[in-house]
Write a structure and sequence with these properties.
The complex is a heterodimer of chains A (about 250) and B (about 400).
Chain A (H helix, E strand, L loop, with lengths): L2 H19 L5 H26 L7 H18 L7 H16 L17 H26 L6 H34 L7 H20 L7 H23 L9
Helix pairs in contact in A: 1-2, 1-4, 3-4, 3-5, 5-6, 5-8, 6-7, 7-8
Chain B lengths: L1 H7 L2 H23 L5 H10 L8 H34 L9 E5 L6 H10 L3 E8 L2 E8 L1 H27 L1 E8 L3 E3 L5 E10 L5 E9 L2 E9 L3 E3 L4 E17 L5 E7 L3 E3 L3 E9 L8 E8 L2 E9 L3 E4 L2 E18 L3 H20 L3 E7 L4 E7 L3 H17 L1
Helix pairs in contact in B: 2-4, 4-6, 6-7
Classes of the chains: A mainly alpha (about 250), B alpha+beta (about 400).
Chain lengths: ~250, ~400
C-alpha cells in the first residue's frame, strides 16, 4: 500500500472519529483525536512535498487538501474557535474527502509556477480562505442564534475576517506582482482575479458595515454567507465550470 | 466644499458603489462563461459592455467615485484627527464622554508614581495638569492604530494612481538577440550579450547573459528561456522565446558549395535521399552542440543519427558539414521607472491594514483627587482586553 495513501486515510479516519466523539460528553478525547489527525495531515503534506519536490498546493487534489488543512490551521491561530470544533470538522472532512476524488500521484512543478511569489501568493490566499470558512460557519450560527448570543458569534466572525482580510490582501498584491513578472501586467481582469477582487470588496464592505450601528447582528451574517459563496466560486467554480483562465494549471 | 466632501465621504455611497461593482463583476464573469443566443440580450450586453465591464466608461466612473469616496473619507478622518489633537490642548474634560470608568476610593499615592505605573503599561503620557488640588494625567497607547487608517486609505489611492501612471509611461521593446551579439538596452547605458545557450537535463533551454556597463562586465546571469531579470530599478528583461538554427555547408561532387541555415523540422532534399533535422541539442553549450537527424537514404531509414558540430555527413555524392549552431532569443524589455514605487505602495497598504486592524488606539485619563482616584478609558477596538488592562492599572495603583 502506498504510504501516502495510508496517511490520507489515517488523517481522514482520525478527523471522522474526532467528529463522532464530539457527540460524547468527554470533550478531551475528541480534541485529542483531532490533534492526532492534524499531525497525520502535516505528515501527509510533508510527504507530498518530498515526493513532488514542490510545495503541496499545485494540482486540484493538493489545492483542496491544503484548503482543508488551512481550515484546521485556523483553529490553532484563533483558539476560541476550538469550541466549535465539531461544526468546523464537518467542513474539514467535506473538503478533505472532496480532494480524494481528484487524487493523483504528484507531478513536477510547472515552469510557470517556479517563482518566489508562488510561496507567498498561494499560502496566503489559502489561509485567508480557511479563515473566511470559519467566519462563514460562525455567521451561520449568528444567523440562527438567539438575540443574547448574537454578540458572541459576531465577535467570532469578526475575528476570523480580521485574520483573513490582510491575508487575502497579501495574496492579491503578491499575485499582482507575480502577474507583472509573468504576464507583463499587474492586473489582467482574468476571471480568477476578478472574482478575488469581488471577494475582497465584499469583506471590505463587511469591515465598514460592522463598525456601524445596527449591523452587528444577523444582517452582517448575510454578507459573510454571500462572501463564502463567492469564495467557493473563486476557488473551485472556475475549475469546475471550465471557465478559461490564466490561472489554470 | 465641506458639503461636497461630506456627500462623497458617505458610507452609504460607498455601500452602493461597492454593491454595483460587485454585481457588475459577477455578471461579467457569468456572461463570459455562457453562450448567448438571444439577439436582444446580445444587443443589451454589447450596449452596456456587460461582458467586459472593466473597459466601459460607467465601470471606470464607478471606480473613480470609489476613489473619491476613499479620498474624502481620509480627509474627514484627518480633520477629526487634527481636531482631536486641538481638543486635547484646549479642553481637558473629554474624559466625561468616555464609556469606561473605574474608581479607587482612597488616595495614598503620588502622581509621579501613577505616571510610572501607566508607563509600565506602555502608555505615553501626553499631558499632565493640576487645578485646585486635582491632578489630571492624560496618556495614550497605540498611536499607530490611529495612523494606520491614513496609511491604508492613502496607499489605496496612491496604488490606483500609480497603476494609471504606469500604464501611461511604461514602454515595451521587443528585440531579437543572437549569440555574442551586443545589445544596447534602451533608456540605459547597459549592454547585454547572450554568451551561450544550453539544454538542461529536462531538455529546457537556459541562457547565459553578460551585462556590461561602460565595457566592464557588471553581472553574469544564467536564466531559463522563459525567465526574466532586472537590469536596474526601472528596466526588466523578459525572455519570451528561443529559436535554434544550424548553419550548414553542402558541397556537391563538383566541389561547388552553398551555405544554408536550417531550423528544427526542416528537410534537406538531395537526389535520392531526404535528411530531416529532428533536433538541435546543446547540452554543453552551442560550441559542443549536436544535431539529431532522421535520414531516408534511397528508402532506407536511419533514425536519430547524432552528428557533432563539424562532423561530416556524406550522402548521395554530397558532403554536408554542420558548421555552427545559431541562436535567436526573443526578448521583451520593459522600462517602467515607477515599478518600485508600486511595490513600496503595496507594502504601505499592508502595513496600514495591519496597523488599523490589529493595533487598538487607547486613551486614559487619570483624575487624582485628594481622597480618590478615577480612571477613564476609551478604545477603538478590542474592548475586552482594554477593560482587563484598566483593571490591572487600577490594581497596580491600589497595591502601591
Amino acid at each position: 500500500m502506498n504510504i501516502e495513501i495510508m496517511f490520507i486515510f489515517l488523517t481522514l479516519i482520525f478527523y471522522l472519529f474526532s467528529f463522532i466523539f464530539s457527540f460524547f460528553k468527554n470533550k478531551v478525547i475528541y480534541k485529542f483525536i483531532f490533534k492526532i489527525g492534524f499531525v497525520f495531515h502535516i505528515i501527509l503534506l510533508i510527504m507530498r512535498t518530498i515526493y513532488s519536490k514542490h510545495a503541496p498546493f499545485v494540482d486540484i487534489f493538493e489545492s483542496i487538501n491544503f484548503f482543508s488543512f488551512c481550515i484546521v490551521l485556523t483553529l490553532f491561530i484563533q483558539k476560541n474557535l476550538l469550541n466549535f470544533l465539531n461544526i468546523i470538522l464537518i467542513f474539514v472532512i467535506l473538503f478533505f474527502s472532496l480532494s480524494l476524488f481528484f487524487y493523483r500521484t504528484s507531478s513536477a512543478l510547472p515552469d510557470a509556477l517556479k517563482n518566489f511569489w508562488f510561496y507567498i501568493h498561494i499560502p496566503s490566499c489559502f489561509l485567508s480562505y480557511g479563515f473566511f470558512t470559519t467566519a462563514f460557519i460562525t455567521s451561520i450560527q449568528l444567523l440562527f442564534s438567539k438575540k443574547e448570543q448574537e454578540e458572541l458569534y459576531f465577535n467570532l466572525s469578526y475575528e476570523s475576517v480580521k485574520y483573513a482580510f490582510p491575508l487575502l490582501t497579501i495574496g492579491i498584491l503578491s499575485g499582482s506582482l507575480w502577474a507583472k513578472n509573468a504576464w507583463g501586467s499587474y492586473w489582467n481582469w482574468d476571471p480568477k482575479e476578478t472574482s478575488s477582487i469581488i471577494l475582497w470588496f465584499i469583506y471590505l464592505l463587511f469591515f465598514h458595515l460592522s463598525n456601524r450601528k445596527g449591523w452587528k447582528n444577523k444582517k452582517i451574517a448575510l454578507i459573510l454567507i454571500f462572501g463564502f459563496l463567492i469564495l467557493i466560486f473563486t476557488f473551485l467554480g472556475l475549475n469546475f465550470l471550465k471557465i478559461v483562465s490564466l490561472h489554470s494549471y | 466644499m465641506k458639503k461636497i466632501i461630506i456627500l462623497f465621504s458617505s458610507i452609504k455611497l460607498f455601500f452602493y458603489v461597492i454593491s454595483i461593482i460587485i454585481i457588475s463583476l459577477i455578471l461579467n464573469i457569468y456572461l463570459q462563461s455562457i453562450n448567448i443566443t438571444n439577439n436582444l440580450m446580445q444587443i443589451i450586453i454589447n450596449l452596456l459592455g456587460l461582458n467586459k465591464v472593466y473597459e466601459t466608461w460607467w465601470f471606470k466612473s464607478l471606480l473613480i467615485i470609489l476613489i473619491i469616496n476613499i479620498f474624502c473619507c481620509t480627509i474627514i478622518k484627518i480633520i477629526s484627527f487634527l481636531k482631536y489633537y486641538k481638543d486635547i490642548k484646549k479642553t481637558f474634560d473629554r474624559f466625561l464622554s468616555f464609556k469606561n470608568k473605574l474608581s479607587i476610593d482612597f488616595n495614598s499615592i503620588k502622581s509621579e508614581k501613577i505616571k510610572e505605573i501607566i508607563s509600565e503599561f506602555r502608555f505615553m503620557i501626553k499631558k499632565f495638569e493640576s487645578y485646585n488640588n486635582i491632578e489630571i494625567i492624560y496618556a495614550i497607547k497605540g498611536i499607530l492604530g490611529k495612523i494606520g487608517f491614513f496609511i491604508l486609505h492613502l496607499s489605496v489611492i496612491v496604488i490606483v494612481l500609480l497603476f494609471y501612471i504606469s500604464s501611461l509611461i511604461e514602454k515595451n521593446f521587443f528585440i531579437d538577440i543572437s549569440q555574442n551579439q551586443r545589445l544596447m538596452i534602451p533608456y540605459s547605458n547597459f549592454n547585454l550579450i547572450a554568451t551561450d545557450v544550453i539544454n538542461d537535463s529536462k531538455g529546457k533551454f537556459k541562457i547565459f547573459f553578460d551585462i556590461y556597463q561602460d565595457n566592464k562586465i557588471l553581472k553574469k546571469l544564467f536564466i531559463p528561456s522563459n525567465g526574466n531579470f532586472k537590469i536596474n530599478q526601472s528596466i526588466s528583461v523578459y525572455c519570451i522565446d528561443i529559436n535554434l538554427g544550424i548553419e550548414a555547408t553542402i558541397v556537391n561532387n563538383k566541389d561547388e558549395f552553398e551555405n544554408y541555415l536550417f531550423l528544427e523540422g526542416d528537410y534537406i532534399l538531395l537526389n535520392n535521399s531526404v535528411v530531416y533535422i529532428n533536433k538541435i541539442l546543446i547540452e554543453e553549450g552551442i560550441k559542443n552542440g549536436n544535431v539529431i537527424l532522421d535520414i531516408n537514404k534511397n528508402g532506407n531509414f536511419e533514425l536519430n543519427k547524432k552528428y557533432k558540430i563539424n562532423e561530416l555527413l556524406i550522402i548521395d555524392n554530397y558532403i554536408i558539414n554542420f558548421k555552427n549552431i545559431l541562436t535567436n532569443i526573443k526578448l521583451r524589455i520593459v522600462y517602467n521607472p515607477i515599478s518600485n514605487l508600486i511595490f513600496l505602495s503595496f507594502l504601505f497598504l499592508i502595513t496600514g491594514l495591519i496597523f488599523s486592524i490589529y493595533i487598538p488606539f487607547r486613551e486614559i485619563y487619570i483624575i487624582i483627587y485628594k481622597n480618590k482616584i478615577e480612571i477613564y478609558g476609551e478604545t477603538n477596538k478590542m474592548v475586552e482586553s482594554f477593560l482587563n488592562e484598566l483593571e490591572k492599572i487600577k490594581n497596580q495603583i491600589q497595591r502601591r
